Amino acid sequence: MPRKGGETSRARLLEAAERLFAERGVKGTTVSAIVAEAGLTQAAFYLYFRSKEAMVEALVNRFGEMLDRYTDAGRQAEHYPPEQLRERVTAVFVGLFELLGRNANLTRVVLQDTEAGERYRNRIVAQIAGNMRRNRSLGIVDAGIEPEIAAEAIVAAVERLVFRYVMAGGRTAEELGRHTAHLFLNGLLPDGGPADGEGARRT
Amino acid sequence: MPRKGGETSRARLLEAAERLFAERGVKGTTVSAIVAEAGLTQAAFYLYFRSKEAMVEALVNRFGEMLDRYTDAGRQAEHYPPEQLRERVTAVFVGLFELLGRNANLTRVVLQDTEAGERYRNRIVAQIAGNMRRNRSLGIVDAGIEPEIAAEAIVAAVERLVFRYVMAGGRTAEELGRHTAHLFLNGLLPDGGPADGEGARRT
Amino acid sequence: MPRKGGETSRARLLEAAERLFAERGVKGTTVSAIVAEAGLTQAAFYLYFRSKEAMVEALVNRFGEMLDRYTDAGRQAEHYPPEQLRERVTAVFVGLFELLGRNANLTRVVLQDTEAGERYRNRIVAQIAGNMRRNRSLGIVDAGIEPEIAAEAIVAAVERLVFRYVMAGGRTAEELGRHTAHLFLNGLLPDGGPADGEGARRT
Amino acid sequence: MPRKGGETSRARLLEAAERLFAERGVKGTTVSAIVAEAGLTQAAFYLYFRSKEAMVEALVNRFGEMLDRYTDAGRQAEHYPPEQLRERVTAVFVGLFELLGRNANLTRVVLQDTEAGERYRNRIVAQIAGNMRRNRSLGIVDAGIEPEIAAEAIVAAVERLVFRYVMAGGRTAEELGRHTAHLFLNGLLPDGGPADGEGARRT
DNA sequence: CATGAATGAGGTTTCATTCAT
DNA sequence: TATGAATGAAACCTCATTCAT
Q1: Nucleic strand E contact set for A 37-96 (CB, < 7 Å)
Q2: For residue C27, which nucleotide's C1' is closest to its Cα?
């Protein structure tokens, strides 16, 4: 295990990179900007990372681990009585906003600016779509829903809301989670509202 | 080497840039890659654009005009009887998917990779949120909906679906429009379905 | 002999170049700037000049011819009675300021920005120094004067005064000629003035 | 490849640039030529100067400081008895030729090839002209002298003689100083010499 | 006579990376 | 562990010049 300075420097570099990558993009951030932010020299960078690319990889891995921890934690509660569905979904959204919000820069970098991000996103989408498909066949999800499309929409929305509201501040994960859950579970229209003629509800 | 004429070359450059920018990002695309794709030399690039930056601006403007034309066209049908709401919204989504899908690369570049893109997105979100707020006070939109959040979610979802399905092929604008409309209007849950206990519908 | 447009265009190009070269230097002036100033296209430039360098040569020649005409004109009056020396020298200076002032841009370009200019200057200096040396041996010029140095000083002064006063306006050739003649003939000190003790006049 | 150390490299670059700028002009000298002369790579240049322009600025400043040191040093001996005028002026000229001659390249570059040079020259001219005007009102300088013109002539002559003789070798600062002083103090004509008829001395 | 379109060569500048200390 | 100094490669951009029309 390296001495004090070591871990500290590496961590500082990652932190600085995260911030800058999120702000200016990976391509738009120079190694020299990162080390300046971290209070080190360019050469020091290469003590901790084989290359700029390798550093991006490190961030990607960090993101992956974060996600795995979350997924593992959620695994146990896979099955729950239908009457708790709404609360359950809300809780999942809130948790996600908390998690991603706490790592908003990292999330943005990985998801929007790396090849690996595409893969992560697809994995998440696939998992959600799978769940949804299962729930659809159980009648829990509306038959008119196309899981792939809905999953993609949900992920995109969450991603965006994290950047927009958690990162920039202004909304709590709680708020965002509740409203997002409501939106995706019920849609915009009120129950049996004025625009909702009989039978018209099927697309 | 073809000497077709100015407008043609300029157009070829824009086309090539659009493709490459969308693929590798603006920063990740070199002028030399653009001209290679367009079958020209680097110097020719600067015959048509003051700088790489100026070319991005040209793309941004092109996107803006596209959007304006769409917005103007939609202006006339602002008010419609409630019973047509569903069809009307569906049509808007379909139209949007058609429009953005036809310009998927341009949309991606501008919206995801330029400062101006942020502004456009915010403008669109604001407009949608405004509509939604109005409709909410009319009882057309559920009282539990937070317009800013919902609008942000919708825009993010559309953006993403365009890249995922229209650009890559696999889904028609029609399909996407219908499903997206359904998702956002009704939500995932079925009407009065099993998970939808009495009174539980309110968040 | 080319038609109307022809000579006109060539002349316009030279004129424009003269102005721009004087302002920004030869290296600092692009062909494109020249043709823009002349209201032509780049290709047109090469109808009249083999290259930018060739155009500079043309300007150098034009300067040379100008100078030759002046020298030839002055040739006949080489010998003149001593009592007219002062007036004669003044007249030469005035004439020179008139000539160079009328072609101030050209003079500046050639003398300060071309290899050939160095040669011209050296030729002029040599001629003046020669005259001076002859006059010195005749007792017309002070024995303490070093012709090369004095000639170099005179040429430099004239050159500079042309740029400073004739080109920018503010002094007439007449004024400049009179004052320059006076300065170089008598020097700064007054005749037998206060600072001029007996015998002290020799260096 | 030597890795001597930063200050050395920076100095070598400035030295090389001074030489080349004086020879070929600023515009005519490429960064690549400078670094070649200094035995470095292009990238190294930008370790020490923000741009080529910034390097020119550095040279201009260096010239300015040189001049200031000289001016400050001369300040103390502002007033001196008239009978020492000649020696005093000679000493000033000699000192100037020494100073500028020791920095001939720098002087040439700054004075002939930069905007700032114009300003410096004007400042020097103005100062000399001011002195002269004062001395003229004291009767020390001939009433027929026009200070601006004379000052301009003196500066131009000195500048030129530095390039011609100090830079290229061939004359010492001492020689040049003495002859220049003599020329500008007494003029070309001998005292009461043959060409100096009665009353003709006034222009 | 003149132009619109293009280009090859080369300029300035930036960047990720290396290495001796 | 850290740095100061350097570099090769490549980025963006400019310029003099050419040629088909």
Answers
A1: 42-43, 45-46, 51-53
A2: F15
Give the nearest nucleotide to B43, CA to C1'. E7
Q: How many CB pairs under 8 A join A and B?
A: 172
Give pLDDT, residue C201.
Answer: 41
> How far in angstroms lies nucleotide F2's C1' from the CA of residue A44?
6
Residue A168 to residue B157: CA distance in whole angstroms: 20
CA–CA distance, D164 with D173 (Å, rounded to integer): 12
Residue D202 Cα distances to A135, C97, C197, D61, D142, angstroms: 114, 21, 21, 43, 10
- Provide residues 7-66 of C with CB closer than 7 Å to any strand E atom: 8-9, 40-44, 47
CB contact under 8 A, A193 and B139: yes
Cα separation, A48 vs A9, whole angstroms: 8
Helix (H) or strand (E) holding B21: helix B6-24
Domain with CATH 1.10.10.60 in chain B: 5-49
D35-94 confidence digits (pLDDT tens):
999 999 999 999 999 999 999 999 999 999 999 988 876 665 556 676 788 898 999 999
The answer, yes or no, to whether residue B203 has pLDDT greater than 60, is: no
CATH 1.10.357.10, chain A: domain bounds: 56-186
Which chain A positions have a beta carbon within 8 Å of B150's beta carbon?
A: 179, 183, 188
Contact between chains at A187 and B186 (C-beta distance less than 8 A): yes
Which chain B residues contact residue A160 at CB under 8 A? 152-153, 155-156
Q: Which of B26, B160, B45 is nearest to B100 (CA)?
A: B160
Contact residues on chain B for A180, CB-CB shorter than 8 A: 149, 153
Taking only the tens place, the pLDDT of each residue in D126-139 is 999 999 999 999 89
Confirm whether any atom of chain E, the nucleic acid strand, is less than 7 Å from CB of D48.
no
Interatomic distance B3 CA / E6 C1' (Å): 7
First to last CA, chain D: 66
Dump pLDDT digits (tens) for B106-126. Answer: 999 999 999 999 999 999 999
**Identity of the residue numbered B132:** M
Question: Are C38 and C11 a contacting pair, CB within 8 Å?
Answer: no
Please judge whether B153 and A85 are an interchain contact, meaning their C-beta atoms are less than 8 angstroms apart: no
For chain B, the distance separating the N- and C-terminal CA atoms, rounded to the nearest angstrom, is: 66
DSSP string, A16-41: HHHHHHHHH-STT--HHHHHHHHT--
Over residues C147-170, the mean pLDDT reads: 92
The pLDDT tens digits for A115-152 are 999 999 999 999 999 999 999 999 999 999 999 999 99
Contact A185, A86 (CB under 8 A): yes
Q: Strand E nucleotides below 7 A of a protein CB?
A: 1-20
The answer to whether the CB of D68 falls within 8 A of the CB of D124 is: no
Residues A5-49: name the CATH superfamily: Homeodomain-like (1.10.10.60)
Spatial CB neighbours of A154, under 8 Å, sequence gap ≥ 6: A128, A184, B157
For chain D, give the secondary structure using H, E and C.
CCCCCHHHHHHHHHHHHHHHHHHHCCCCCCHHHHHHHHCCCHHHHHHHCCCHHHHHHHHHHHHHHHHHHHHHHHHCCCCCCHHHHHHHHHHHHHHHHHHHHHCHHHHHHHHHHCHHHHHHHHHHHHHHHHHHHHHHHCCCCCCCCCHHHHHHHHHHHHHHHHHHHHHCCCCCHHHHHHHHHHHHHHCCCCCCCCCCCCCCCCC
Fold of C56-186: Tetracycline Repressor; domain 2 (1.10.357)
Measure CA D161 to chain center: 9
- Compute the Cα dihedral for B108, B109, B113, B115 and give only its sign: negative
Q: Which tokens in the block code for residue C91?
A: 């007249």
Q: Which residues in 38-67 of chain D line strand F, with CB less than 7 A from it?
A: 40-44, 47
